[in-house]
Amino acid sequence: MGSSTSTSPPAGQRLYGRRAIVTGAARGIGAEIARTFAAEGASLVLIDIAADEVHALAKTLECESAVVDLADAGATAAVTQEAIDVLGGVDLLVNNAGVLKMAPILDMTIENWDQTFAINVRSMFVTTQVVGRAMRDQVAAGHMVGGSGGRIINMASMGGKLGSPNQAHYAASKSAVIAFTRVSAMELGCHSINVNCICPGYVLTEMGAATRTPEMVAAWSAKSPLGRLAEPDDVARMALFLASDDAAYCTGQAMNVSGGMVMH
Ligand SMILES: NC(=O)c1ccc[n+]([C@@H]2O[C@H](COP(=O)([O-])OP(=O)(O)OC[C@H]3O[C@@H](n4cnc5c(N)ncnc54)[C@H](O)[C@@H]3O)[C@@H](O)[C@H]2O)c1
Question: Is the pTM of this model over 0.90?
Answer without folding.
Answer: yes
